[in-house]
Design a protein that fits this description.
globular; mainly alpha; about 130 residues
Length: about 130
């Protein structure tokens, strides 16, 4: 929903459909080489751990606020946001499954846990509904 205002898409589209069942397009994280992390003194490791925990909620709130601003923006333009009836939402979820399956296979071929990643993402989406 953020793109409606942030990228000004709300100015050029006539209809907005919102569906949490399709997932969210952003997953962000900060990583550090494990050997480097392990080489840091415990008090510095704790700083990274504490800031990481704090910023999970802060970052989530920032995105929620940006999404809300996008929703408000299109409403100010006189446009409306529509949800999907459950049957139609299920049809859309089914329609995108081949893309997800292709992603999982691509990651697995590279030795990465694509299937497990998708499973975790789905569990997280469900837990935050």
């Amino acid at each position: 929903m953020e793109v409606l205002k942030g990228w000004k898409q709300g100015e050029v589209i006539d209809y907005v459909i919102e569906s949490d069942a399709l997932g969210y397009t952003t997953s962000m994280f900060i990583v550090m080489n494990k050997e480097k992390y392990d080489s840091l003194p415990p008090d510095i490791q704790q700083v990274f751990d504490d800031v990481g925990e704090e910023w999970v909620d802060v970052h989530g709130q920032i995105w929620d606020d940006a999404d809300n601003a996008g929703r408000a923006f299109v409403k100010e333009l006189g446009k409306s946001i529509h949800g999907l009836p459950p049957e139609e939402e299920a049809r859309w979820v089914e329609a995108i499954q081949p893309i997800i399956t292709e992603y999982e296979a691509s990651m697995q071929e590279q030795g990465l846990p694509g299937t497990e990643a998708v499973k975790v993402i789905r569990e997280l989406i469900e837990s935050y509904k």
